[in-house]
Amino acid sequence: MVIEADVAVVGAGMAGVSVAYELSGRRSVVVLEQEGQAAYHTTGRSAAMFLQSYGGPEVRELTAASRAVFDEAGPLLKPRALVWVAPADQVSELSEMADRLPGLQPLTGPEAEAQCPPLRAGWCAAALMEQSAEEIDVLGLHQHYLGNARRRGARIVLGARVEAADHDGTRWHLFTEAGLVKAEVVVNAAGAWADQVASTLGAEPIGLKPLRRTAAVARASDVDPAWPLVADVGETFYFRPEGANILLSPADEIPSEPGDAHPDEIDVALALERVNEATTLRLRSVVTAWAGLRTFTADRNPVAGPDPAREGLFWLAGQGGYGIQMAPALAKLAAGAVLGESTVPGALSVQRWR
Ligand SMILES: Cc1cc2nc3c(=O)[nH]c(=O)nc-3n(C[C@H](O)[C@H](O)[C@H](O)COP(=O)(O)OP(=O)(O)OC[C@H]3O[C@@H](n4cnc5c(N)ncnc54)[C@H](O)[C@@H]3O)c2cc1C
């Protein structure tokens, strides 16, 4: 099989399908995914939150700029407040956060307990609430992008791992498990593999770090679905209702090689221990657990736009722990760069790693 397109996007996670959607209709697009299904890796494994108080200034700006798309694309968000809690030894971190993010509502310990009654009395010294935080229908957003990209003519080829590549001076030749793909432009949206894909294309890696994060769902009794997401400001755990159960994480960041991440029993146990210490939930029985790779650049900003040293190669990588909530704005930025209609701000550019 030989496929010819203007743009080949490598990866059909949230990054790949969102940029494919933005480009399709304007350019002929093919999305190449190594797995037999899209959204198999990190995109299918998130905690599904839209948090405007999470990440650095650039990430928060991209998140805020993405908000409208969630409404336009359908009912993809539902309210789920966020309470950043601080035990006594994290109070100074909480006041730094309060200074940085004056929009958050300060809560006393008892006020935080009133928002989330399972918090153990006296454990939380102070808290900050993001009342407008929301839960995302991640697969709904992914399907919105994938389905509409297809309707605009994009081809999605599964089982098409890009294994080798060369450039004939005009076009890329990508050698995949599904056949040869010829394209003028390649968008590298390969998540944890983005540095490897860059090497395959003869470009320099940018030092991406895939960090494994574990999540689990545990049985609990008397869960009120209106409880907020509770996260400690020192980022050692978070939990929220998931139906009649509790979703929880030890907020781990374990350096990993790109691959199919699996949860380690120790990390699941750590999550249970930390949540049980802060609450009266008495979580023991785990219904399911999973892990995914959150892939970061050294400054934790994503990277988008042209590779300055490799003609026809564009990046859309390093989405870390925010790749769902900021996908809409980041995809528009990346597509604008491919179309030559706009430039990517310096703080997100590939140049800063060269
Ligand atoms: C536990 C956890 C909780 C999270 N919570 C949130 C949250 O609440 N909110 C939020 O916004 N974000 C969250 N995230 C982060 C978010 O999930 C990621 O930032 C986002 O999914 C990254 O999307 P992606 O498309 O870059 O990567 P991926 O979804 O991993 O997609 C990359 C794709 O590229 C493909 N690929 C790689 N190499 C090749 C190749 N050579 N050829 C073809 N295909 C290739 C892979 O198979 C993969 O499908 C969380 C992540 C985890 C793990």
Characterize the overall form: elongated
Major sheet description: 9 strands, mixed
The domain tally reads 2
Output the CATH homologous superfamily of the largest domain. FAD/NAD(P)-binding domain
The assigned CATH architecture of the largest domain is 3-Layer(bba) Sandwich
Computed over alpha carbons, the radius of gyration is 21 Å
Question: What features would you describe in this structure?
Answer:
It is a single chain. With 354 residues, the chain is an alpha+beta fold. It has 2 domains: 169 residues, FAD/NAD(P)-binding domain; 138 residues, D-Amino Acid Oxidase, Chain A, domain 2 (2-Layer Sandwich). It is built from 8 helices and 20 strands. The protein is elongated and about 65 Å long. The model has no long low-confidence stretch (mean pLDDT 98). Bound molecules: flavin-adenine dinucleotide. Flavin-adenine dinucleotide binds next to helix 1, strand 13 and strand 18.
